[in-house]
Design brief:
Low-confidence stretches: 1-30
Mean pLDDT: 91
Number of helices: 16
Number of strands: 8
Helix content: 40-55%
Strand order of the largest sheet: 1-3
Distance between the termini: 40 Å
Structural class: mainly alpha
Radius of gyration: 22 Å
Shape: globular
Order of helices and strands: HHEHHHHHHHEEHHEEEHHHHEEH
Oligomer: single chain
Largest sheet: 2 strands, antiparallel
Length: 504
């Protein structure tokens, strides 16, 4: 009799040491008795939400950003994350291995509950309300599985392209059935990009249909700051993925559906800073539940020291210089600190200042904030980018609408051609900095970068930067824009021999 483990106590933010496909949901109940009732499904589904707290906070957000051009390590941090900041990416890296195995573990948990709910519907006498609940949980589980595969594809696969869409071994190993086994011959190899994204798209369609149906009788989660998934959260992820794939028509349609609903209006100028400090905002579509006893992972803690007087990573001067006069994001994201170790004054990144209600010790900041994985502002940027080449008037409208909620005294601008595309890209960088999009964006745009070590506002800052990473550069198309498949996975899974990403 196999022991299986319930996701109710699974912590997705943990770093795992094993990355084989023999991943079991986390907990302590036996496979034959784990899910017998709708209430069992409810508890297991709550475990998937706990996983989403981890997957949308901490290193799942900041790791790739530290790799890119916007932040520089200081000597105060002891070169923590220095390898990734220096651009030294290895298939044996424990963090990268952890993301891979952690996400596949959540996938297997989702597979498990999807299977068990189907069995329950087929074998038990259930009321209409029970069937409605199971349909909702099934939609949520499909969303979580889709989100995991999206995250894996966005980090471990090349940007989707028509020329690579059906090429062998450019996608992910796809696991859709709960079947833990030590039989290595049954492990899947890498799929095509088309196969990977078809699974994601199919899962999101299933999630959307289930949640729309549920919302006909209970639409309490169709509201800002919802702790549970809604059909609008599904639309937001669909829009993001469509843009990633270059499907501008779908990206625009999905984004506009959310925008035009009027349910999630952009945060007003006066409230923008509070959006990040208090984790409350009209534009937050989904906000996984957290409390001081049910935390995710600290995102701000990789940038700021616990004693509030040192910083491990600081923004580059180029980043600071992007924001013009009256841009409320500057004060929301950056604060001047005197760094204790060096007595040097520098701007530090305070987009994740820590919600005081999430402190475990009242007097000690832990830089814990509720995650905000889907915001209307991203959808304005998606809509603008998707319309830029076919409907520049509409693209300008979305760009101007967003800027008017971020810049005091803003007057509408008008761009065309490459200038419009560049303006949207710059706005995306200013709005979404530190939210885990930068690597994906630069790869998708086919751009390289040069990290600038100069700080003309205070040249003393240059003396406290980690020299091996302060001026890192990537050329366009650099293989490090795609992470390597973990070496343990390649070695363990015979179907993945010869399927490593280029450059590793």
């Amino acid at each position: 009799m196999k022991n299986i483990f319930l996701a109710t106590i699974f912590a997705a933010g943990a770093i795992f040491t094993s990355c084989d496909m023999d991943m079991k949901p986390y907990g302590s109940l036996d496979d034959e008795t784990a899910i017998q009732t709708v209430n069992d499904c409810y508890r297991f589904r709550n475990g998937l939400y706990s996983s989403m707290r981890g997957l949308t906070t901490g290193s799942y957000v900041y790791f790739s950003d530290i790799q890119m051009d916007q932040f520089q390590g200081t000597t105060a941090n002891g070169n923590r994350l220095g390898i990734i900041s220096q651009g030294e990416i290895y298939s044996s890296d424990g963090d990268i291995t952890g993301y891979w195995s952690g996400l596949y573990s959540v996938i297997n948990s989702a597979n498990y509950i999807i299977e068990k709910m189907e069995n329950l519907k087929a074998t038990a006498e259930l009321s209409a309300s029970d069937l409605a609940a199971l349909s909702r949980y099934d939609g949520e589980a499909h969303f979580v599985r889709a989100y995991c595969y999206y995250w894996l594809a966005d980090h471990f696969c090349e940007t989707y392209s028509a020329e690579n869409a059906q090429a062998a071994a450019k996608g992910l190993p796809l696991v859709t059935v709960y079947h833990p086994t030590g039989d290595l011959t049954s492990y899947p190899g890498r799929s095509t990009q088309d196969e990977t994204y078809k699974l994601i798209d199919d899962d999101l369609t299933a999630a959307y249909n289930a949640l729309v149906e549920f919302e006909k009788t209970d639409n309490s989660n169709v509201a800002p700051n919802a702790s549970y998934l809604s059909s609008y959260a599904v639309l937001a992820l669909q829009a993001r993925i469509a843009l990633l794939k270059g499907d501008n028509e779908t990206a625009l349609a999905k984004a506009e559906t959310v925008i035009n609903s009027g349910i999630y209006p952009l945060t007003e100028l006066a409230d923008y800073k509070k959006l990040w400090a208090d984790d409350e905002g009209t534009e937050v579509i989904f906000r996984p539940f957290m409390s001081a006893t049910e935390l995710g992972n600290s995102t701000g803690g990789t940038y700021l020291a616990t004693n509030e007087d040192n910083a491990d990573y600081i923004p580059t001067y180029d980043v600071l210089n992007m924001y013009g006069e009256g841009d409320v994001r500057f004060d929301a994201y950056f604060t001047i600190w005197e760094l204790t170790d060096s007595k040097v004054q520098a701007y530090v990144f305070t987009k994740y200042p820590g919600n005081i209600d999430l402190r475990t010790t009242p007097s000690t900041p832990n830089y814990m904030n509720m995650s905000k994985p889907f915001r209307t502002s991203e959808l304005y940027l998606i809509a603008a980018a998707a319309a830029a080449t076919t409907n520049p008037t509409l693209a300008n409208k979305y760009l101007n609408d967003l800027r008017s909620k971020r810049i005091e005294g803003y007057e509408n601008g008008s761009y065309s051609g490459q200038n419009l595309i560049n303006a949207i890209r710059e706005e995306r960088q200013k709005e979404l900095i530190g939210e885990g999009f930068r690597m994906s964006d630069l790869r998708r745009w086919g751009l390289g970068f040069q990290r600038n070590p100069s700080h003309p506002e205070n040249p003393q800052i240059e003396s406290i930067l980690v020299t091996t990473s302060s001026s890192v550069s990537y050329e366009a198309g650099d293989h490090r824009y795609v992470w390597p498949i973990p070496s343990d996975e390649i070695q363990t899974n015979p179907q993945m021999q010869g399927q490593q990403n280029p450059g590793y």
